[in-house]
Amino acid sequence: QVQLVESGGGLVQAGGSLRLSCAASGSIFSTSVMGWNRQAPGKQRELVATITSGGSTNYADSLKGRFIISRDNAKNTVYLQMNSLKPEDTAVYYCTLYSQSNYWGRGTQVTVSS
């Protein structure tokens, strides 16, 4: 059974930074693609970034250069470093483990004030 627990969200002013963490239980973390998705109020959930077991990354075009995804397989943890935050980055951010069955965390709220 895989469980994902996000942390690190909060309230930040525009231009600030936050680092999200996602701790995963289970033995398949190190071989799985991990990702971050977000859902803003009144909008559909959207992909933020993914990272393969080997460290290859992929980002939503609109977020390239501001967000960085990374992982520590020894700690079963994936991170999302968010810089130069904008009010439109306000959303609930979800950690995802992609496998035969995709797993989602409960999310962490990020609020960016103008």
Question: Which helices and strands appear, and what pairs or packs with what?
Answer:
Blueprint: E1 4-7, E2 10-13, E3 18-24, E4 33-39, E5 46-51, E6 57-59, E7 67-72, E8 77-82, E9 91-98, E10 103-104, E11 108-113
Parallel strand pairs: 2-11
Antiparallel strand pairs: 1-3, 3-8, 4-5, 4-9, 5-6, 7-8, 9-10, 9-11
Order of helices and strands: EEEEEEEEEEE
Per DSSP E runs of 2 or more residues, the count of β-strands stands at 11
Helical content (DSSP H or I, runs of 4+) = under 10%
Strand content: over 45%
Net shape? globular
Distance between the termini: 40 Å
Query: Sheet bearing the most strands, described?
Result: 7 strands, mixed
| Overall pLDDT confidence | 96
From the alpha-carbon coordinates, what is the Rg to the nearest angstrom?
13 Å
Protein described:
- It contains no helices and eleven strands.
- It has 114 residues and is mostly beta strands.
- The strands form two sheets. Strands 2, 4, 5, 6, 9, 10 and 11 form a seven-stranded mixed beta sheet that branches. It has a four-stranded antiparallel beta sheet with strand order 1-3-8-7, with no helix packed on it.
- The model has no long low-confidence stretch (mean pLDDT 96).
In short:
This protein has 114 residues and is mainly β. The chain has no helices and 11 strands.
